[in-house]
Each structure stands twice: as C-alpha cells, then as structure tokens.
Design goal:
By secondary structure, this protein is α/β, with parallel strands linked by helices. It contains nine helices and seven strands; from the N terminus they run ααβαβαββαβααβαβα. Helix 1 (about 15-25) packs across helix 2. Bound molecules: S-adenosylmethionine.
Amino acid sequence: MSSPVPSYRESHLGRGVDYHDRFTRNCRRRMMWQIEQGVLDRVLDRFDEPGCEPAASGTRPPIDYLDFACGTGRVLAFVSARTASATGIDVSGSMLDVAKTTAPSAELVMGDITHESNTLGGRTFDLITAFRFFPNAEPSLRTEAMQALVSHLKPEGRLVFNNHRCLSSLRKRLVRGLTLGRRGRSGMTRDEAEQLVTSGGLEIERIEHAGVIPEYERLILRPRWIVERVEYLATRLPLAGIAENLVYVCRRPAAAAAADRIRQAA
Ligand SMILES: C[S@@+](CC[C@H](N)C(=O)[O-])C[C@H]1O[C@@H](n2cnc3c(N)ncnc32)[C@H](O)[C@@H]1O
C-alpha cells in the first residue's frame, strides 16, 4: 500500500539555517531576493502616497503587516523595518527559531493559517506578504491559504505574493523540451495564479517579474556581472511571459469586503 503524499505544511519541519543561508550563498537566489526587495519597497512607497493616512513625522507609516509562511524571517525582517507592527506566522518551529534572530522586533506565531485555532483570531492587516509558498503548495492548500489570507486582509489592503516557479518561464519550457515533457512540470501557471486571486475576490494591481535567463541555482552562468545586468534590464521590459518569478500585488476592494459582511450577517 502506498503511503499518503505529505502536505506542503510539513515541508520545512526541522529546517532553518540551511534554508536561510542560501539567500546569501547562492548568487542567483541572492539576485532574485534583491529584485524582490525593490518590488517590496515600491509597494511600501505607495502606502506613503497622498490618500493614505499620513504617519506622524519620525514614525513609521501606520501599516499593520503580516508575513504568511514567514519561515526564517527573510521577507518579514525587510518589510517590518518600514511598518508600525509586524507579525509572522509559520507552522515550522525550527524555521521560526531563525526568524527570532532575523526579525527580533516582530511577533512570531507558530500555527497553520488554514486552521481556525491559529492565534491570529479575527485580526486583520493592511499588508500581507506570502513568498515562496503558493507554487510549492498542493492545489487544495493553495485555495485554503488564499481564503484564510483574504479573511485577514483589511478592505483596501494589499496582498503581495510570488510565483517563483512559473511554468511558462523560458527555463521550464527548455526543460520540458529537452526531457520530452518528463520534467519541468512542477510549479504554477499564470492562469492558476490569476484564478487563485480571483477566487479570493482580490484584484491584481500589478505583476512584476524577474529571472528570464534559463539558469539553475546549481548551474550558474558566468560572468555574473553580465547575467545580472541583463536580468535587471529584463525586469523593465515586457518579458513576464518567459520569467521564472512573478510577483503579484493584489488589492482587496472595499466593496468586496462590504459584500462579505452583508452575506455573513444574513
Ligand atoms: C519556502 S518557505 C518560505 C519562507 C519565506 N516566506 C521566504 O520566502 O523565505 C515556505 C514556508 O511555508 C510554511 N508553511 C507551509 N504551510 C503552511 C501553513 N499552512 N501555515 C503556515 N505556514 C506554512 C513552511 O513551514 C515554510 O516555512
């Protein structure tokens, strides 16, 4: 009898420093992370624009921030430097042990976002991030997590998540071509990502992209300065169709949140 397929929930139990260090040790992962930081900075800049509640001078913008599947605190530490409050949630205690050191001022919650018993309760946030989660998770977990995240997002709040294993990327296409379709099939399509967003009643505000050169983290092309120059330039060109990493900035329309409240009250 075959054993049941484990859920992605269990994927990082017992992991920690080994995962975290790859963002500094591996030059492709490091470059991707630098590009993602630029996207996050632009998202945070918009919270400072006219129309958003201004922060008192010298204080951080009044953003309540949640990092879902925060892992070792990579994204949490970066974003929390610009928010009034920061909370990270993850099921893996060993990943959170690292987050305690990387994001010491954030509140860390050990729990499964899809379980009502998680200690976030009815709290809602202006900004939620979810990096390196959705394309790795099995389809049922993707849907459950999206529903849970939407329930924790304030009206007009933003969800920023990425699909770092986009199936239309040049790299995945090459892998499928070279292996006659046997490999290069794990990840998420652009349609699947968009359906996930729509299923949560969110609107895609914009999609940024990174990683058009077909290289592997274990098969790095050189010289790096040329590869990186091309990759940075490519982020400004209309190349999302072949990029490996798509970052979605999504908005929860106030009208959708109001409709939810009416439905719940009925
Ligand atoms: C690849 S790591 C991403 C960590 C971090 N977001 C980053 O980008 O570096 C994915 C994380 O999702 C967590 N995870 C998986 N299912 C979860 C769930 N249902 N609720 C909370 N965390 C979950 C895992 O424990 C793991 O730490």
